[in-house]
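Hey L., structure's done. Input below.
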Amino acid sequence: MAFTMHSHSGQFCPGHAKDELEEVVKHAISVGYKTLGLTEHMPRTELSDLYPEELTPSPEQSLSELTPRHKSYLLEAQRLQQKYASQIHILIGFEGEWIRPAYGSLVQELYSADSCIDYFIGSIHHAAGVPIDFDKEMFLAAKEKCGGTEEKLYAVYFDEQFEMLKFLRPKVVGHFDLIRLLSDETGRDLSPAGSWAGKEEIWSKIVRNLEFVVGYGGWLECNTSALRKGLDEPYPARPIAEKFLELGGRFTFSDDSHGIAQVATNYVRGLDYLESLGVKELWTLERSTHPGTQNGERAQLTEKSVPISEFRADLKL
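Output:
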């Protein structure tokens, strides 16, 4: 049973992704997905949080469009859930942001406001309020704001991630070690076996975060977008994945696609990676009722184990 728990479309993430959401759904069906988690980005609330691509024609206009776009997305997601119910199990979610602690309450408000929402992804794309995965210039700006070294930047990132985890306890933790994407050494081993001078402090923060996720029953996504962006391993990197498994952690699986061209990208490599770690099953959610909701009540979600062998068998790549 192939699936993704993390996806985006150009329709509701313009400038950052491509294609209409319905085209993404149809393509997901064509490659063998049986479950599709829709997780467009949540709206932001401050002009300072806009990306460069959102500053024209007017930052104020871009900001004002975010919340209405989120509402339109939820309506379209429900329509598609109904329309394609016989072909694919659609989960409706969104990708949360933790740019600063105030966003935690907004994530909770967005989740509570619409009973159609099944889950949200707990993600960190910033450190000290500065994006760390948009481009190298911003990554370096975040590093300077955090103290001028990558060690200090990593420390801030994992501390802010911990605050997000404690506040939100997301079922799906997005791209756990996204901080390494634009790092000077993307393959750096952060475990005690590594050679990085700052590894002891960083590793202790990583383990703390992993223990917390395991403790409340969250999942890390094995996110294959790292591979299409040139990294050697998905998120999370092997030392972190090994520690998570040692602690009893469970993985879900995501392509983090931003359009039909990225649906299931590097999925075979991602599955090979997990099997090399000894992983035999992946986890997703099943909603009841599906499609839709009854009497305006949120659907009940059941955790579902999917053997990797079954996942592979469904893929049509």
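The chain has a mean pLDDT of 97. The first strand starts at residue 2 and ends at 4.

-- N.
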